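Note to self: user wants both folds in one dump. Writing first protein now.
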Amino acid sequence: MDTKSLIIDHATILFQQKGYKGVGLSEILKVCHVTKGSLYHHFPNGKEELLIACLHSLNEVITMDIVEIFERYPTTLEATNSMIEKLIVNLEREGTITGYTFSSMVSEMATLSDPVRKACAELYAKIQGIYFKKLMEDGYS
């Protein structure tokens, strides 16, 4: 795994567990075993740019997982039940469902920057689109 991906993966987990404000750069550096120079090489605008990269990464992972589940089941109800069952299994196994949440990463930020707001909106819209498509296939308006 390259350094940038390593930083994104570890920072995503930290942001999900502690929120954006609850994670300092020093903690990210320590967990990733990288220098401040390395972090700023990959994320010149610092922590907010890293957060946006984490949101984009989650966008890919979450939506890919939802799409796979929704393609496997013929109805929205069955697909949604499968998603809930998967979340329960993850919660029981790992004690968290952080892999499927992103609002915890930004919820404490009263006013989000435009780039962060845009990254969140893209993820919400993508998830909404997946559910919308499945509901339309089920005959709902």
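First done. Writing the second protein, which came from a different request thread.
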Amino acid sequence: MKNGNIKDVKKELLSNNWYTLHKFTYKYQRPDGSWETQEREAYDRGNGAAILLYNSKKGTVILTRQFRMPTYVNGNEDGMMIEVCAGLLDGDNPADCVRKETEEETGYRINNVQKVFQTYMSPGSVTEELYLFVGEFDDSMKIGEGGGAEDETENIEVLELDFVQAMDMVASGEIKDAKTIMLLQYAKLNALVQ
């Protein structure tokens, strides 16, 4: 770590169940020069990548719908979320990851992907850095049904939506996933889909 305002970092493992949760205790130098002890927890699930698939001729996008337990316990009545295709890097480079996840989750085999953002989605508690991509698809690229990898219990529903409808779903609150909103807005601002 390179921040000179941080020293004496101690790391304690709190959980290693699904991913890892660590507690960090450290000294932080305040603007007045004094040092204070701080404690924070950080959830580490690895880095990930996500992609918005779009078809400029048809004016559609491919999104997914699946159950997300954390949203369910935080007031999302049915726990279902509409999202762009995404997954953890698991040792892959980000572009290879989105190509693999696209095939598993949506059934489309795409080659050309364009990275548009690299972001921390919840930097106060989650270590994950997310690489965001866009990629154009057409019907000839469909090689399977999608739905996710058999061994990952994802139960993903594939949605091909009119782009205007998807943007309306953001406005109405039906789409609440941040990475999906960011990529849809990117597509709108850059006129990828009309």
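Dump finished. Worth passing along: The first strand starts at residue 6 and ends at 15.
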